[in-house]
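Page 37, top half.
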Amino acid sequence: QVHLVESGGGLVQAGGSLRLSCAASGSIGSINVMGWYRQAPGKQRELVAVITSSGNTNYADSVRGRFTISRDNAKNTVYLQMNSLKPEDTAVYYCRITTTYNYWGQGTPVTVSS
């Protein structure tokens, strides 16, 4: 019944920007933590950014200063604003929303060309 729908991925040039969205629908309950992960070909899935219900954020060292995570509680949506994109940011990006359970989005590909 709970669905996480991601959007905003695509192909961009290095130095460009992209904004990812992840909207939760259904009987999801009280949302605690929302976050973004990514997985590049041949690599493990890694944490990109998280935001708590109180608005505290944390970022991977590789994206800190370039990416901004935010949430709209009224819309049950988490965003990832990605600026100054680099080719090494190329990956499939996954949204995760945590209540008493963990829910994952379907993944949205981001490709950054050099």
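Page 37, bottom half:
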Amino acid sequence: QVHLVESGGGLVQAGGSLSLSCAASGLSFSNYVMGWFRQAPGKEREFVSTIKWGDGRIYYGDSAKGRFTISIDNAKNTVYLQMNSLKPEDTAVYYCAARRGVIGTITQNFEFWGQGTQVTVSS
């Protein structure tokens, strides 16, 4: 059974940083692609980043490029999202997700989701 649990969200001032963690169980990063998505009130879920462990393939959404970094610690079975230079428009619930097979950015193709962690950036 695949289970994903996010942590690390909170309140931060604009320009600050946060690091989110996703503890994964019931899967191996050798067989799954991992991703981060976010959703603000009244808006559609937005792609943030995706990664395939072991082959160097990483993609970022336009809003994340140059500011966010996705990574994996395979020994700890954990995915991270380091967020720097945060802006008020980054305020959202951030979700960790997983899918089998080929790396991708489309929300509907990710099979498993965590409960989310709230990130709030004040101006």
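Margin note: The CA atoms of residues 47 and 107 lie 7 Å apart.
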